Amino acid sequence: MDNSEKTEVVLLACGSFNPITNMHLRLFELAKDYMNGTGRYTVVKGIISPVGDAYKKKGLIPAYHRVIMAELATKNSKWVEVDTWESLQKEWKETLKVLRHHQEKLEASNCDHPQNSPTLERLGRKRKWTEKQDSSQKKSLEPKTKAVPKVKLLCGADLLESFAVPNLWKSEDITQIVANYGLICITRAGNDAQKFIYESDVLWKHRSNIHVVNEWITNDISSTKIRRALRRGQSIRYLVPDLVQEYIEKHNLYSSESEDRNAGVILAPLQRNTAEAKT
């Protein structure tokens, strides 16, 4: 199958990135290798979308810092970039709305830059056309629009399993995410993503749009463990990109005080979905 027949894919990772770690970056590489290796897809871009402050997660430092750290982490990447749209929203935005925003952005960009047709270019130089052109010839004169890349949600197995947490996700949102966009889930030892998909009727129905990628080189880095090490004055070198480590140290970002931020505050999705469920 040549590249023109493959579906172009944009990987979107949503999350706190508090702070971004080397493992977050590895997810993109693992997903890209897997999707390209199927022979059916070509990954053309990766997007990191840090959540806004209105998410109200405990220990969540301001989005301003989290975005800068993500930008520093991807500084040398040729295909992964940081998008600030979600982080700049005054209210928390559901993941489905973030996916929709990026898909619509790609579609708008595609309309602005239609692929030039060589046939149309020839038209400007040569106008001698007979009236006996058949419909197939006329069709060939129409501008050729390149297919819009498909946005897919890149996540870890923990996000997949969070679908089962009451009121954390709207059931209709889960359905639309897996049906209309799709998931690329990176799973590690101890996570049985396939079993979780089997036990969920919605996920099972759309299992063909869920790609489970095994991470064979196990890596247990997490933002929570990074913050714990920083609170204890321990080194985080080689767990986060060097530029991120330098930024954290320069601004003294993580401490016992920052970890208490939003303590006692109900997480935005739980608050919103619980309230809507009562109405």
Automatic annotation (TrEMBL):
Keywords assigned: ATP-binding, Magnesium, NAD, Nucleotide-binding, Nucleotidyltransferase, Nucleus, Phosphoprotein, Pyridine nucleotide biosynthesis, Transferase, Zinc
Ranges of compositional bias, category Basic and acidic residues: 130-144
Protein location: Nucleus
Pfam name, any one: CTP_transf_like
GO MF entries: ATP binding; identical protein binding; nicotinamide-nucleotide adenylyltransferase activity; nicotinate-nucleotide adenylyltransferase activity; protein ADP-ribosyltransferase-substrate adaptor activity
Main location: nucleus
Pathway: Cofactor biosynthesis; NAD(+) biosynthesis; deamido-NAD(+) from nicotinate D-ribonucleotide: step 1/1; Cofactor biosynthesis; NAD(+) biosynthesis; NAD(+) from nicotinamide D-ribonucleotide: step 1/1
Region (Disordered) residue spans: 107-144
Catalyzed reaction equations: nicotinate beta-D-ribonucleotide + ATP + H(+) = deamido-NAD(+) + diphosphate; beta-nicotinamide D-ribonucleotide + ATP + H(+) = diphosphate + NAD(+)
Gene3D superfamilies (UniProt xref): HUPs
Annotated Cytidyltransferase-like domain residues: 12-228
Ranges in coiled-coil conformation: none
EC number: 2.7.7.1, 2.7.7.18
Cofactor(s) needed: Mg(2+); Zn(2+)
Enzymatic class: transferase
One of the record's GO cellular component terms: nuclear body
A GO BP annotation: ATP generation from poly-ADP-D-ribose
Quaternary data: Homohexamer. Interacts with ADPRT/PARP1.
PANTHER family assigned to the protein according to its UniProt record, in alphabetical order: NICOTINAMIDE MONONUCLEOTIDE ADENYLYLTRANSFERASE (PTHR12039), NICOTINAMIDE_NICOTINIC ACID MONONUCLEOTIDE ADENYLYLTRANSFERASE 1 (PTHR12039:SF21)
NCBIfam families associated with the record: nicotinate (nicotinamide) nucleotide adenylyltransferase
Family designation: Belongs to the eukaryotic NMN adenylyltransferase family.
Name recorded for this polypeptide: Nicotinamide-nucleotide adenylyltransferase
Organism encoding this protein: Rhinopithecus bieti (Black snub-nosed monkey)
Gene that specifies this protein: NMNAT1
